[in-house]
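Example record for the data management plan.
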Amino acid sequence: MRQRWLSGRAFVLHGLLVVIVPACLLAGWWQVHRALSGNLLSYLYSIEWPAFAVIAVFGWWQLIHDVPLGGSEGPGPLRPPAMRFLLSGGEEARVGDLEWDATLETPELRAYNDYLATLAKSGGRKTWANPKGLPDGSGTEGMSGSGGVEGR
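Corresponding structural encoding:
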């Protein structure tokens, strides 16, 4: 409980609240005086600025009472949610139960998947000299000194 109100994050939120709420109320008071001077649009703004102050208090309250994702024991390992799918027969399947059917691949998809597998195995990095991340700088053919634009 004490950590909620006295942590570093809480002090930043308290400071923001102390600055934002009076500023919004002051702007609302200023708009009231402008509205009474004959500026009809300021009637709307004289309501809007205090509403912003209320929204700031609501947001401050929500952020102070926010519980981080790992509960009170601190951040823990994040696990993906169990993904389930319904198969065409109506039975349920999990992600681990599904298998890829290579016969459904188009030649373009197969070529792209092979390209991605090559990149994953090579461990090549993308650089100016190797913009595609291919091994041994093989991604630089056809490039000239003008940034890869030929014929200019």
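Summary line stored alongside the record: Residues 139-152 have pLDDT under 50 and may be disordered.
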